[in-house]
Amino acid sequence: MKAITVEPKKPGTARFEDFPEPEAREGSVLVEAVAVGVCGTDVEIVEGKYGWAPPGKTRLVLGHESLGRVIDPGPNSSFKAGDLVVGIVRRPDPVPCPNCAVGEWDMCTNGQYTERGIKEIHGFMSERWRSAPEYLIKVDPSLGILGVLLEPMTVITKALEQVLLVGQRSFWEPKTVLVTGAGPIGLLAALRLSLRDLQVHVLDRVETGPKPELVRALGATYHTGSVLDLGFEPDVIVECTGVGSVIADSIQKVGAGGIICLTGIGAGGVTGRATADMAAAAVLKNNVIVGSVNANKRHWYRAGENLARSDREWLSRLITRREKPENFQHALERQPDDVKVIIQFSEA
Ligand code: BGC
Questions:
Q1: DSSP label at 318?
Q2: Model confidence at 332, in pLDDT bands (50, 70, 90)?
Q3: Pocket of ligand 1 (CB under 6 A)
Q4: pTM score, whole prediction
Q5: Is residue 34 within 8 Å of 82, Cβ to Cβ?
């Protein structure tokens, strides 16, 4: 079969190549790939900045935002041939740490977790892949290709759960929420938040393309420019850019008793002085900065329900480009109007 593979930590090594069929020990359910979403993490891996091959191997099959169709459900599974499924990304560490022991692998404390297509387990950018049934989520068949948005939806489901949990520390009546970054994660956050009794604001760099209209279609307000220039102090900020200056501005701008949830993974330092100023602002306003990564089965389950209930027409506008596997390099190059680019292996 064919797969998109990379030698992690070596830039320029990604290839669409012949690759052995998935091994039976990778799981009893055999799945045919339908599509795989591309995200910033994939770009980082291909640029040689992130990622780990499976132990004893040099190459890693890329891809963690999957959608597939069951070919062979194997023994002991409730799946049927033809079911649309998505594979869970993270596996608990083998020790296991207390969090992994109770199924909260997203909160792994010893860093020995593994992740498909990212850390030590092959991903989903291959014509066929296998999974143990407990790491597969059945997708509402009426979603079709939109099921490929489930993984990013799980990331935001966990992040918003974290915000709600932190909010319970005091009497809390949030009114305004700012989402920084109108990529897939930011837009899915805005979608979920717009269903609550909240004024939702989304800030992004771009002034044209599909993002402003996608935000307005949710009844939310679209902003460009600096967080510091906004005419209000948000009660909650969901930070989806990972950009140092946006994070620093968000910490300064958030209202008293506010919560900033960081979901973006960026790079770049902040000086010690700025850090102390930000800390002082957080102390004086009782603010919380909470980081959130990945998702456990509870979030996958909820995200599946939420995605199935979402407006299909709006969701379909998030998928702005579909590329063939052999054109994966093109899929990885960011174009101005991209929201979610997917690599399509077969029809949904
Ligand atoms: C993925 C998460 C993963 C994280 C860190 C993100 O792009 O969506 O599942 O935990 O990268 O590797």
A1: T
A2: very high
A3: 39, 41, 64, 89-90, 115, 118, 155, 293-294
A4: 0.97
A5: no
